[in-house]
Amino acid sequence: MGDFNVSRQPQEQLHGSPKFSKAMTEFNNCLNVIEVEDIRGVGRFFTWSNKRDGKHIVNKKLDRALGNWGWHKEYNHSFAHFHNPGISDHSPVSVSLADSGSKGCKPFKFLNYLTKDSRFLDLVRGVWSQRAVGNPLEVVICKLRNLKRELKLTFRRSNPCTRKETIRREIENIQSNLLHHPTDADLLLQEKDLISRLWNVSAEEESFLKQKSRVNWLKLGDSNNNFFHRAVTSSHH
Question: What SUPFAM superfamilies does this protein's entry cite (predicted)?
Fold first, then answer.
């Protein structure tokens, strides 16, 4: 672990060169030969900055923690935490040997309802069009890792169950105001928009709960939220 002085791929550079450099290729080849891979990371993604501003600023991921097959097998719950740099131009890194009983950071879980979002396909296309080096399996692994990071950044929001209740409260407030101002065009437009959002988030909630409940035989679209919720609750006891 530490400063390797080179990134693994262009996506690990903000305002750097968009192409693979000779140093990147050699670094990736070295890691493949000695059979090590990045330990799961949390905290800051870019770990080095040239401390300049405006168009001259460059941020890169130069620091990393790597483990071989034995490490990932024995310490599969470990993670590398990249901290704020303070007065340095590099982020300090610490490795936590979290065991299976500790809460640690929540693992990434793909939610099926994300595929219905208008941004999803463009995001996948963008990541899949990026160039990567290595054999076909390594390329797929690299792109999946990048896609996971983009999904987490793009869809960083509360679960649909919580958002649905928030929208319901907003609708109640708007409709209370409409009692006193029944022809207010702005309030009517807000009510229409909120009801449309409520239908959308209700569909997301149903998909979310079905996936969490592991009930495969029941089809979506029949407002089975209560059934799925009971299945989720019973499976946790």
Answer: DNase I-like
